[in-house]
Amino acid sequence: MLDEVERLLSYEVRSPLALTVKVVAGRLAPDLGHLRVNYILRDSDGSAEPSKALLEVLEKAQSFIGRTLVEAMDLRSKPHVVFVFDKDAQRAQRIEQILAEDRAKRPATPEEPSEDVPA
Fold first, then answer.
1. How many distinct structural domains can be found in the chain?
2. CATH of the domain at 86
3. Phi first, then psi: what are they for 23, rounded to 5°?
4. How far apart, in Å, are the Cα atoms of 27 and each of 6, 45, 72, 105?
5. Which residue from 5, 8, 45, 64 has the least number of CB within 10 angstroms?
6. pLDDT tens, residue by residue, 4-33
7. Which of 17, 15, 39 minimizes the C-alpha distance to 26?
8. In the prediction, which pLDDT does 55 show?
9. Which of 46, 1, 47, 39 minimizes the C-alpha distance to 20?
């Protein structure tokens, strides 16, 4: 379901701001009436917050995404979709990015000979 939400944001919502959203988690209520979608910002330095314009785009997209999910997922009723910015996941993404950059800068260390191999 989250893949479908991300697809809708990327290809169906007619705003370039929607392309800055990466869906990282979600929770569908047991009664299927509410869908909470956690997201982060793509290509962010880790400290960015969603802009007011992006929040408006997501708010306007909630109903459309709920209607589309009914058809795509064969649900009985339209879930109320809520987008929640995930600050912790955003920070974690930034930490992973920094570590990857650090690893790329380091020279490769030569492997030490194994004890099983005679010298």
1. 1
2. 3.30.300.20
3. -75, 125
4. 14, 26, 17, 38
5. 45
6. 999 999 999 999 999 999 999 999 999 889
7. 39
8. 95
9. 39
Distance CA 80, CA 67 (A): 9
Please give the model's pTM, rounded to 2 decimal places: 0.75
pLDDT band at 65 (very low <50, low <70, confident <90, very high): very high
Terminal alpha carbon distance of the chain: 56
Structural domain containing residue 64: 2-96
- Please report whether residue 104 resides in a domain: no
Pairing label, strands 34-41, 21-28: antiparallel
Number of residues assigned to the chain = 119
Q: Are 32 and 11 in contact (CB under 8 A)?
A: no
